[in-house]
Amino acid sequence: MLKRLPYLMFTLFLAILTPLRASPPIGAVVQTWHYDPQANIVTATVVNLSHKDITAYNIFIKETYADGHVNNHELLCEFAGMMVFVQEFKGTPDEADIRKQFGDGLFHPGGSRNEIIGVQPGLQNFEAVVDVVADTDQIAEATNIAALQRLVEGRKASVASTQMANEIIRAALADPNDADPAATAAKKIQDRITIWKAQTHTTVDFEPGVAKGVVDDLRAISSRPLTDKRNALTQYLTKSEKRLATFSPHAELTRLEARNEIHC
After folding, report:
1. Angular region, 38: left φ>0, alpha ψ -120 to 50, beta rest
2. For residue range 51-76, what is the model confidence (pLDDT) as tens digits?
C-alpha cells in the first residue's frame, strides 16, 4: 500500500463522501476519501462492516471534473490469491515471516484498507460505492451483477488455466524417456497461450497471465543445474494442485438476493 507523508498546511484534502446510490450497504463500504491535488491521487478508505473475512470487493467510482466531464470506472480488489499464497507456507519455517508481511491475506471484519486511485487534474467531486463483496464462505453480495460476473469469470478462468497447466505437466512427467519434462511442459503451455491469443473470444475461459506464470516457473526449473529435474517438477505439481484445491471453491460463489441491482 502506498504510504504518503503529510504535506504542508496549504495542501488541500477533501474528505466528503457522497453516496452514489441510496441503497443499503453490503459487506463493505467506502467510509471516507481524501484528495491530494498535488499528486492527483485519491485515497479511499474501505471498511469491512460484515462479520466475515472478505476475499474480494468491487468499487464503482464516479469522478467529476471542473470542466464538466465525468469519468466512471471500477476497481476490483482481489485477495483470494494472497490467501492461497499465505496458506502455502503453513507449517513451514517461513510461515512467521510471511504472516508478518501479509497476515493471512484476507480483509477481516472491522478492518479498513486504503485504496490508492489515480485521477486527472481538476477533480471536483469523487463518488465511490462498494457494489460487490465476496467472503470466505463463498457467499457474494452484489448490487452490480456485471461486476460480480466478471469476478466469478476471472476466478474460473484462473482455475481452468491452472488445471490445463497441471494436466500438461502430469503428461510430461508420465514420459520416462523425457530427461527435462519441465522444458517440455513449458513449451506446450506456451503454445496454448499463443494459440489462445490468436483467436477471438466472447467469453473468459482462459487466463494467459496465469499460464505465463507457470511457463516462467517451469523454465526456471529446467534451467537449474539439478540432478533430478523430474523430482523438482513433481514437487512443483504437488504444490500447484494444493493451491488449486484451496482456491477452486472460491470460484463457485453463491449470491445472496441482491438489493437495488445494477445491470451494466
Report:
1. alpha
2. 999 999 999 999 999 999 999 999 99
pTM above 0.90, yes or no: no
Give the gyration radius of the chain's Cα atoms: 22
pLDDT per residue as tens digits for the range 9-56: 223 333 333 344 445 679 999 999 999 999 999 999 999 999 999 999
Specify the DSSP element, H or E, that contains 206.
none
Parse the chain into domains and list their residue ranges: 28-143, 152-250
How many of the other CB atoms lie within 10 Å of CB of 182?
Answer: 25
133 exposure class (CB count in 10 Å sphere: 0-12, 13-18, 19+)? buried
Candidates 2.60.40, 1.10.1070, 2.30.29, 1.10.720; CATH matching 28-143? 2.60.40
CA distance 110 to 5: 25
